[in-house]
Amino acid sequence: MGVFVSIARALARAVHASRVLTCFTPLTKVRAVVVMVDADEPGAQELVYSANKFFTSRTIRTAIFAVSARKNCPDLMGATMLTGRAVNWFGKPRRGRRRPPVAVGEELFVNMVERECFTSEYCALASKAVFKVGRASSSKGIYNMFVSSDGHNPVEVFTQMSNLLDTVK
Questions:
Q1: Are 40 and 69 in contact (CB under 8 A)?
Q2: pTM over 0.70
Q3: Contact 62, 75 (CB under 8 A)
Q4: N or C end of the chain, less CB within 10 A?
Q5: d(CA 64, CA 79)
Q6: Alpha-carbon gap, residue 53 to 145, rounded angstroms
Q7: Could you tell me how far CA 49 lies from the centroid of its own chain?
Q8: How many Cα atoms are found within 13 Å in the side-chain-facing hemisphere of 63?
Q9: How many domains does the chain have?
Q10: What is the CATH number of the domain that holds 65?
Q11: Strands lying side by side in the sheet with 108-111
Q12: Residue 130 DSSP label
């Protein structure tokens, strides 16, 4: 990663960071959720299905976005891809009429991307969600809650995460 990319990413983080105070919020108060998925991970399609099923069964509007490090990644059914032309040269999602915005007025942001990914980190940082959940801990203090995924597939991790979300009152 070059110096210019590092500077652009640091500037994007500083300028677009959400100023909304976050806290634990029960699912009964959540009307919309954004889920970020790693499209390169095995089991990503099953994760999209299980996340969509979990949140729609609770009448929560769900927007699922998939990030990939590869340029020719196959599309995931039910997810909007954030690869190629959907992100700019340093990894920030583009805005425009033809691309849906990542921010959809969500109260809950779930990041299921385990690897270091600027796009998912930026979306979590810029999200105005009241409750943010991550799959890996971040030294930047972005998430209210995170679930470790040592050697488990993403569907198992999401199942554990959904069980924890159900217990928040």
A1: yes
A2: yes
A3: no
A4: C
A5: 5
A6: 21
A7: 15
A8: 19
A9: 1
A10: 3.40.50
A11: 80-82, 61-67, 32-38, 108-111, 131-134, 145-146
A12: S
Local structure of 36: helix, strand or coil = strand
Structure tokens at 58: 């609770």
Torsion region of 163: left, alpha or beta (phi above 0 gives left; psi -120 to 50 gives alpha): alpha
Q: Which two tokens stand for residue 8?
A: 């652009």
CB 52 within 8 A of CB 80: no
How do the pLDDT tens digits run along the chain, 169 residues long? 689 888 888 888 888 888 888 899 999 999 999 999 999 999 999 999 999 999 999 999 999 999 988 877 788 999 988 887 778 778 888 776 445 567 778 899 999 998 888 888 888 888 889 999 988 766 678 889 888 888 788 999 999 999 999 999 8
Query: Hunting for tokens 């991307």 — which residue is that?
Result: 113
Extract the tokens encoding 163: 């069980």
Q: What are phi and psi of 82, to 5 degrees?
A: -115, 70
Q: Which amino acid is at 37?
A: V
Using a 10 angstrom Cβ sphere, with 0-12 exposed, 13-18 middle and 19 or more buried, the burial of residue 28 is exposed
Tell me how far apart the alpha carbons of residues 37 and 47 are, in angstroms, rounded to a whole number: 8
Short-list 97, 63, 96, CA closest to 81? 63
Range of the domain at 111: 3-16+25-167
